[in-house]
Amino acid sequence: MAKCLWGAAMSAAQAEGAYLEDGKGLDIFDTLDQSRDRAVKRFPRPKEGDYYPSHVGPDFYHHMEEDLRLMKECGLECFRTSFSWARIFPTGLETEPNEKGLQFYDRMIDLCRQYEIEPIITLSHLEMPYELFETTGGWEDQRCIDSFLRYAVTVFERYKGKIRYYITFNEINCTIHFPLIVGVGVDRSENPVQCKYQATHHVMVANCLAVRELRRIDPEARIGAMTAYGPVYPLTPDPKDVKKAEEVERENLFVSDTLVRGHYPYYMKRFMQENGIELKVTPEDEELIRDWRIDFLAMSYYNTNAETAGKQAQASGGNLFGGVKNPYLQETEWGWQIDPLGIRIMLNKLAERYDNFPLMIVENGIGARDVVENGEIHDEYRIDYLREHLKQVQEALHDGVNLLAYTMWSFIDLVSASGGKMSKRYGLVYVDRDDEGQGTNRRICKDSYYWYRDYIRERREAEKDSP
Ligand code: BG6
């Protein structure tokens, strides 16, 4: 059975706070708050007096040492987080990086190494420098590729030999499903569908250029891309429902299909034609996609959805994409359908689709309104969620899936991506901060923290005994 690293995840934009400290520039995530509908509104520059939970959040920037110590005590083998692009290139337009921003990450990576926690670093997790977005209008503009590459090369050179695993983009298919939150300016485009797919193409080109640069600078390191995924089930055996589920699935997977296989999948040709999309793809782009492939595919898994071609069914929620409710599943308060078996189905599906290509699960967890009772948090629902999902991950490992790492979401409570709030909590560690900005940022380990610590310990023991 493959050796899998067990760890936890978070992202810079959702956890660091310190949003303009030590030279960091404003990034697009800093301009989103819970009162705004992210799906349709343009990013407004924050005004004096506006309150944005992410500007402070759980304040990892000032609690980094404490949080890493808690990770070590929990026995984490790896820690997946992101670097903030705007902390390193404050506007995204300059040629020289912000040394103070890099120094923060120097300390973080050194501490990870000291604690023997493998850092898995995402270069862009739901953020890009705000000025870059304002100047270019987002990823439809090729200047974003140059800026991203400058940033990637700076990081690869600085952390050569220290970081072994990189992820270029978090949920790279967000460009299709949640474009504004990742810097795709659909709101300012006359043709939003064209904009989304052209921007996605540019993000893929940026990904491949980063792969090429990493091979040159630090050939020992490994680099992957990440996709948001959850299998799509047909609501019934009606072939029309099966076809519909297949179409939605393809829309979700065409980016990973392209990056793993080195070319756009055959089915995208008809899709583009029927949707009036005219992609500008140069022969150089095609070569890049063919020649500079990722080493592993990472994914987030929170839920599955069902799909139907027109049958009466209630809509369901979910991470990035909804569908319709599956009558066999329970759901969270936010309508995300809980499906532990789905994680095994997903892993096997991807292993099959990509010929047992290396995979990583870098997000999996449950958002809930945790309650503090006498200084303790009894989050048995989170323990249930993790236990049942991890059982199925173990099954998938027995099935022979090549899983490099599993990092649950999230280590500490942080600002939710879709709602912008602290109150939708995912952490193993509670952070005393509410949606209105009240709180001490004190850390309290939840019951799930201790449960996960024991789980990792048991896994380690079991692996010692296994051949
Ligand atoms: C993923 C993102 O989409 O889902 C995370 O990569 C995010 O950044 C997570 O936090 C959970 O979503 P939400 O909206 O509940 O925070």
Strand order of the largest sheet: 1-2-3-4-5-7-13-14
CATH topology: TIM Barrel
Hetero compounds: 6-O-phosphono-beta-D-glucopyranose
User: How many alpha or pi helices?
Assistant: 14
Report how far the terminal alpha carbons are from each other.
8 Å
Please give the radius of gyration in angstroms. Answer: 21 Å
The pLDDT mean sits at 94
Helical proportion, percent range? 25-40%
Structural class: alpha/beta
Give the tally of β-strands: 16
Strand content: 5-15%
Shape: globular
Poorly predicted segments: 36-40
Question: What is the number of domains?
Answer: 1
Return the CATH class: Alpha Beta
Largest sheet: 8 strands, parallel, barrel
Q: Summarize the helix and strand pattern as letters.
A: EHHEHHEHHEHHEEHHHEEEEEEHEHEEEH
CATH architectural designation = Alpha-Beta Barrel
Can you put this structure into words, describing what you see?
This protein has about 475 residues and is α/β, with parallel strands linked by helices. The chain has one domain (about 5-465): TIM Barrel (Alpha-Beta Barrel), CATH 3.20.20.80. Helices cover about 40% and strands about 15% of the residues. The chain has 14 helices and 16 strands. The chain has helices at about 10-15, 60-75, 85-90, 100-115, 130-135, 145-160, 175, 190-215, 240-260, 265-275, 285-290, 340-355, 380-400, 445-465; strands at about 5-10, 80, 120-125, 165-170, 220-230, 230-235, 295-300, 305, 315, 325, 330, 335-340, 360-365, 405-410, 430, 445. It has an 8-stranded parallel beta barrel, surrounded by 4 helices. It is globular. The N and C termini lie close together (about 10 Å). 6-O-phosphono-beta-D-glucopyranose binds next to loops.
